[in-house]
Amino acid sequence: MSLAGAHQHCIPSASELVYARPSLRSHPDLKEKLALVIPTLREAGNLPALLRRVREALDLLGQSYEILVVDDDSRDGTVDIITAIAREDARVRLLVRKGQTGLSGAVLHGWRHTDAAILGAMDADLQHPPELLPELVAAISSGCDLAIGSRYASGGALGRWNPARRLLSSAAVWMTAPIQKPDLRASDPMSGYFFVRRECLEGIAFRQQGFKLLLEILVRARIRSLKEIPFRFGRRSRGASKANLKVACDFGRLLARLYRTRFSSRRTMPIESFVRQEAD
Ligand SMILES: Nc1nc2c(ncn2[C@@H]2O[C@H](COP(=O)(O)OP(=O)(O)OP(=O)(O)O)[C@@H](O)[C@H]2O)c(=O)[nH]1
Ligand SMILES: [Mg+2]
């Protein structure tokens, strides 16, 4: 996919330059390790094709990487499928959580189990085209702190959503406008397809529950630049959606909390690791 139409905020401002990182960023040819987390809940039917396409896309980068499948005890054959692939390719790893659920927590769990400098997340149901991976990683390698696969950036599309889902999604995006940083707004803050520099997250405790980790990162992490790369949200062909009423309620709770954080006078920043378990 071409970069045309990509929503860019990558040119550092004078104040950003003060915080410009030394070492790796001044040597853009030095390739950093990346880790892609794929959270799964009963997605066995999607995994063989997904893993094949993801590995093909990441191999194009000539960069050290690992793929962490974080499964919440699906018991649908996921373990057998990923174990077989991992036997042939040590860059593929499986982490199974027992007695826990939550998409955000699963992604954070994967990130906690890697030492990679570039951290990513994508859905397992092939709605996020793996062929976009090189462009997302290239955005980070060229200096952005955050690269987002965006359905709302010019050139992106929601796919075949019904009008009600479109309306709800647009309303949800609209509600995030006041809490996003004014000079760093993403058009698709609810995307589950993104990469971020690890150093931007360190020291921040994120919620383990819920679906919308990117929104929390946009509001709370130390992001200085971002780039949105448009894509068309695909159709789920196998397995069932996990987006339900609980997810919507959880989004409401997250939003309320982020509004409080953004507009409260006491802006305390937890000092523990970004993956610390945080009570809701
Ligand atoms: N580990 C883990 N993964 C989850 C959990 N909930 C959802 N996922 C995964 O998160 C990804 C996104 O979930 P989806 O159900 O596809 O949500 P969605 O894309 O918003 O909804 P659809 O468009 O209906 O598919 C998929 O890979 C799911 O398997 C969870 O509690 N734990
Ligand atoms: Mg999906």
What is the CA–CA distance across the termini? Answer: 39 Å
- Gyration radius over CA: 18 Å
| Largest β-sheet summary | 8 strands, mixed
Assigned CATH superfamily = Spore Coat Polysaccharide Biosynthesis Protein SpsA, Chain A
| Ligand inventory | guanosine-5'-triphosphate, magnesium ion
CATH domain fold name: Spore Coat Polysaccharide Biosynthesis Protein SpsA, Chain A
Label this structure with key terms:
14% strand, 8 helices, disordered C terminus, binds guanosine-5'-triphosphate, globular, 32% helix, alpha/beta, 8-stranded mixed sheet, Spore Coat Polysaccharide Biosynthesis Protein SpsA, Chain A, 280 residues, single chain, disordered N terminus, binds magnesium ion
Give an overview in words.
The protein is α/β, with parallel strands linked by helices and 280 residues long. The chain has a single domain, classed as Spore Coat Polysaccharide Biosynthesis Protein SpsA, Chain A (Alpha-Beta Complex). It is 32% helix and 14% strand. The chain contains eight helices and eight strands; from the N terminus they run E-H-E-H-E-H-E-H-E-H-E-H-E-H-E-H. The chain has helices at 14-18, 47-59, 78-88, 103-112, 133-141, 163-176, 213-220, 245-263; strands at residues 7-8, 34-40, 65-71, 92-96, 118-121, 146-150, 194-197, 226-230. The chain has an eight-stranded mixed beta sheet with strand order 1-8-6-7-5-2-3-4. The protein starts with 6 loop residues before the first strand and ends in a 17-residue tail after the last helix. Guanosine-5'-triphosphate is lined by residues 39-41, 43, 70-72, 101-103, 106, 123-125, 127, 192, 236, 241-243.
